[in-house]
């Protein structure tokens, strides 16, 4: 295989992986810490896309302000969902999951009523093509990649080096012991939900720029998040990173050489195999 | 204190229940003759057909699993019946039997693998499997006609072309299938089912072959929903992959949740609401879907017993129907 073919595929794969990881990270966090499978996670990504459209395109706020502000606004909306919907259902895995299914339907249908169903594009402010080492690379993809990597690095630093991050990790490991040490588990739940919704919204903003924006677009990132966390292990943060890279790369290769439907068959086949052989994923821990 | 009643309380209650059932049956038989509008018989036929699938998912719920691929088995039944009658020219009856056997066989093969997983892992694998089946319906174009599906599926019998005639046919079929599920739940097998849901370990240590039993119940449920798939395909004369996706699987689950997961009455009440309301609110499609999501959240938060739970509590206020307690 020639290098000129390989580099765009690799580059594309990395870009897709980074967006997938952003979205899957919040999904796996919510499961790992609150034991809730959040079917509405894709809708937070969708809301992020619409927030960017509104702030950047409609209000004309500069891109580098609209991007974080949009994600934070959706994160705040996530706090509302946590407060009124998920909090009463903690400890009831299946009930929480059903509630999130209801939220998913309600959010996407509300978006249809507010914004109509057609697909839109968010025009990107970066349209140049940059040559790096002789390979032409589109600037907007480079920006997407940079933003995603920066957000992931910021998240990692936050969880690794701050007191709140430490509390998060403690609650994820053992909630009762954490509470016995004086950690307010409910506060960490709020932080988790806020972080997860913000990351998903940021992922959605980038996703909407590269692909398209529509009220039902949440299903795609949700499906990817599912696949990624099953590969990496439900609740495992490094697992989400590994799963995202594996999925993004293999999709990029299979799409190029065999077509999109084979890529989808392959990923379904892979997760069904993995769920059978190793339901806790590559980097997760088996449950007792 | 002497009782004024002639019958013992338990027997009197049984008589009243039989009377109520007879009244319900009479109502279901007579009303289509009084209402001319074909729209209502069409809608009622859909309710009857969906009650089969909803009751079959109730079986899966009762063994403690939430399946998000029930529509995939509905589709397997629908496609089996459609292909056998249109491509191979089979008569309806053998195709109908096959439409139950095909999904049941698939469930029998997959069951031992899927049913080892519990809780959210089962939900996730059934979600993936459902999408995989839908993808097969779309991609295997030479067999399934791709996204367009299969048209002009004949009715089971030339006499069943009107919706009123099909209503009576569906009523008989639904009575058979739902009656079968009710009988199963009331039998010793029903005790096994409840024992498995309450505590798998205890059931196993009491000698219940848990996995084998779950697989049998799962295969039975998938076979029943396959039968619904066939009846539905021959009613609307059309199958397509879009009708068997995640939204439809979710609908079966929501019917069970909103109706109530504790007893068979739940999915039946849920079917009446969730199948007839969208038909009645046709002009309000967008708001109706929004309402669907909001109601789902509200029921899970405030009415864990579902609509049937509310109904049961209301009925218990009527003195004659209250179960006498020693």
How is this structure best described in words?
The complex is a heterodimer of chains A (288) and B (326). Chain A has helices spanning 3-34, 41-58, 63-86, 93-115, 139-161, 163-173, 175-180, 185-210, 219-232, 237-258, 260-277, and strands at 129-132, 135-138. Chain A is 75% helix and 3% strand. The termini of chain A are far apart. Chain A is built from eleven helices and two strands; from the N terminus they run ααααββααααααα. In chain A, helix 1 crosses helix 9 and helix 2 (41-58) packs across helix 8. Chain A is globular. In chain A, strands 1-2 form a two-stranded antiparallel ribbon. Chain A has a single domain (3-277), classed as ABC transporter involved in vitamin B12 uptake, BtuC (Orthogonal Bundle), CATH 1.10.3470. Chain A is mainly α. Chain B has 326 residues and is mostly helical. Chain B has a domain at 39-244. Helix content of chain B is 74%, strand content 0%. Chain B has helices spanning 9-34, 38-62, 70-86, 92-114, 119-139, 141-144, 163-186, 188-198, 200-205, 210-236, 246-259, 265-280, 285-302, 306-315. The chains are: A mainly alpha (288), B mainly alpha (326). At the A-B interface, helix 4, helix 9 and helix 11 of A face helix 5, helix 11 and helix 13 of B.
